[in-house]
Amino acid sequence: MIGKISGRIEYRAVDHVLIDVRGVGYLVYCSERTLAGLPGVGEVVALYTDLVVREDLMQLFGFPTLVEKEWHRLLTSVQGVGAKASLAILGTLGADGVSRAIALGDWNAVKAAKGVGPKIAQRVVLDLKDKAPAVMAMGGPVAAVSDGGAGAGGIETPAPAAPAAQVPASSQADALSALGNLGYSPGDAAGAVAQAASEAPEAETPVLIRAALKLLAPKG
């Protein structure tokens, strides 16, 4: 299983890039959002990857963060959602947007992705809502990867996570943890934190917690 690839961009296409890894070229398919954020031809890049193997096809999909890769894995587990639809959703919303949409049950946001109809969007939200808290708790964007630690051939699986004290958690992840400690269910906590974060994207943990608690308070 190829978990990460590092190399030099040989060329860019509409939906993929060719990455040269010590003389071997790998076609890596990415979302529009990911492609827009990649460096130019001739520059070095590193992406977390997911390899799909079928009887007549092998495709490598690339992601800038482990959070986005995990959402791709979960999205493609939903009946009717293939890799193309998953990349469309991630390209439209981004990993954070997918987290908020699913936590809030906002299938209209998912439906905004090209080629995703209302039935599929509703199924995505229904099937994955209970899994959103775990992905959100993975934290914010993973630190930028580099090609310095690539093994033989420049291909490697993601390195083990650093101790928690060395990895700055996102405000959303900290707020989720705090609400969980207060006894709220993962689903309720995720929905409240997602809504609070959507209303105040730059809010730090204490602000998010207070806003989420107001949303969770019984309506009298």
Automatic annotation (TrEMBL):
On assembly, the entry states: Homotetramer. Forms an RuvA(8)-RuvB(12)-Holliday junction (HJ) complex. HJ DNA is sandwiched between 2 RuvA tetramers; dsDNA enters through RuvA and exits via RuvB. An RuvB hexamer assembles on each DNA strand where it exits the tetramer. Each RuvB hexamer is contacted by two RuvA subunits (via domain III) on 2 adjacent RuvB subunits; this complex drives branch migration. In the full resolvosome a probable DNA-RuvA(4)-RuvB(12)-RuvC(2) complex forms which resolves the HJ.
Q: A Pfam family name for this chain?
A: RuvA_N
Q: Where is this gene product found? A: Cytoplasm
Identify the domain of life: Bacteria
Q: TM segments?
A: none
Gene Ontology cellular-component terms for this entry are: cytoplasm; Holliday junction helicase complex; Holliday junction resolvase complex
Give all residue intervals belonging to the DNA helicase Holliday junction RuvA type domain: 1-62
Coiled coil start-end: none
User: Which SUPFAM superfamilies does the entry link to?
Assistant: DNA helicase RuvA subunit, C-terminal domain, Nucleic acid-binding proteins, RuvA domain 2-like
State the residue spans of region: Domain I.
Answer: 1-64
Q: Which species expresses this protein natively?
A: Roseobacter cerasinus
CDD domains per the UniProt record, alphabetical: UBA_RuvA_C (cd14332)
The text the record gives for the protein's domains is: Has three domains with a flexible linker between the domains II and III and assumes an 'L' shape. Domain III is highly mobile and contacts RuvB.
Annotated protein name in UniProt = Holliday junction branch migration complex subunit RuvA
Which Gene Ontology BP annotations are present? Answer: DNA recombination; DNA repair
- Record family assignment: Belongs to the RuvA family.
Q: What is the lineage of its organism?
A: Bacteria, Pseudomonadati, Pseudomonadota, Alphaproteobacteria, Rhodobacterales
Q: Where is this region: Domain III?
A: 169-220
| UniProt GO molecular function | ATP binding; four-way junction DNA binding; four-way junction helicase activity
Tell me which InterPro entries the record gives. Answer: DNA_helicase_Holl-junc_RuvA_I, NA-bd_OB-fold, RuvA, RuvA_2-like, RuvA_C, RuvA_C_sf
